[in-house]
Amino acid sequence: MRLRSVWVLVAVMVLLLSVLVNANGAEPAEDLGETKGVRYVTLGEALEIAQENSTTLEITRLSLQEAQFSYRQAEAAQIMQPSPTMLLQAQAGLDLARQNYLMGLDSLALDVRSDFYNVLRLQNLLDIAQEGLESAERHEDIAGKKLEVGTATRLDVIRATRSVLDSQAGVSQARHSLELTQMRFRQTLGLPLDAPVLPKDMDMTVEPADIDLADDLAFALENRDEVKQLQAAVEVARKNVELSDNDYTPVLTLEQAKINLAKSELQLRQVKELLALEIRQSYSALRDAEERIPVLQKGVEEAEEMIRLSELSYEADMITSTDLEDARIGLLAARNDYVNAVYDHNLAKVRYDYAVARALRD
User: Half-sphere exposure (CA, 13 Å, Cβ side) for 289?
Assistant: First the structure.
């Protein structure tokens, strides 16, 4: 009787213990493992983090404060020692510092967007590589079964196994490339390389950009940093010529002022020519990416149909293992090309906007 009571007590304790375990462990372990400690940030959140941590951006902000202080000093100095050139230089320096800060924000946004998109690109390429590995493993299994029934050769199995090994190497390479790109993304955000922060997945839309190239060119060639800086130099040089062109200034001083003006004007023209080429190249890259995408998308559809038919034909002994492998490789290549084109298009749009100083208009 006493032994029976002991067994009843043990059973009750086990039951209570199982209830407690289930209550405390309601979430599946695999769900916790996938997201534990990792913060997935949107593009907007990534930009905010980068702005908070960017040393380069902080330097441009301090430079703006310094330029504001220099301009106030130049204004104060006009009372005791008027100098139109000094005030003009101070005003030009302040305008340029303001623009440098705005373009610093835009440059940082370009880096963040580029790294954000590249992480997503390589994640997609890793997924494709893993799908390719699964496909190679299926083909290896089919080849093995065909060998057992005498409809395939040992060479077919060796080739299928070789494809699996190549696919495993491709997955490993894609994974390492993704890890390096993730570290670069964190570095751009000003975070430790091993910080648990990753881009949140997003739909990459592909829509033709509504662009007025002539208007963008005209704006950029008047407002880009390089142009503004040289325009200020030309204005200062022209003012020096004006102030030196009198009966009291030595002739050599006037000639030197004219030479400086001519050099500044030539440098301005050269920079505008280089910028025009850069903008046209960015525009061409954007349009090229737009035009390639529909073609590559059609190529993916055709490659998917090809692999489907090839697998059926191989199982029916209508094609060789080499034909099947060619179809598999063709599908992988088509998917890789399409993913790259989609991300190339989005990056080209970002780079074009930067080239035409879109941030100064918005």
Answer: 24
Q: Name every residue whose Cβ is closer than 8 Å to that of residue 125 and which is 6 or more positions away in sequence.
A: 174, 177, 178, 336, 339, 340
Q: What is the pLDDT of residue 362?
A: 63
Q: How many residues does the chain have?
A: 362
Tell me which residue has tokens 């790109």: 181
pLDDT at 229: 80
Q: Which two tokens stand for residue 220?
A: 């950029």
User: What integer pLDDT is reported at residue 36 of this predicted model?
Assistant: 65
φ, ψ for residue 153 (rounded to 5)?
-100, 165
Rounded Cα distance between 310 and 64, Å, is: 65
DSSP 320: -
Both tokens of 74, joined, read: 């130049």
- Closest Cα partner for 53 from 192, 171, 254? 192
Please give the domain boundaries of the chain with CATH numbers for all domains: 40-201+212-361 (1.20.1600.10)
Its pTM stands at 0.72
**Structure confidence at residue 47 (pLDDT):** 92
Q: What is the DSSP string of 36-49?
A: TT-EEE-HHHHHHH
Sign of the C-alpha dihedral computed for residues 113, 114, 115 and 117 taken in this order: positive
Phi, psi dihedral angles at 197 (to 5 degrees): -130, 130
Sequence-distant (6+) residues with CB within 8 A of 184 are 115, 118
User: C-alpha 188: how far from its chain's center?
Assistant: 10
Residue type, 215: D
Q: Which pairing describes strands 197-199 and 39-41: parallel, antiparallel, or unpaired?
A: parallel
Q: Which residues of the chain have pLDDT under 50?
A: 1-34
Nearest CA to 290 out of 347, 226, 342 is that of 342
DSSP 198-252: EEPP-----------HHHHHHHHHHHSHHHHHHHHHHHHHHHHHHHH-STTS-HH
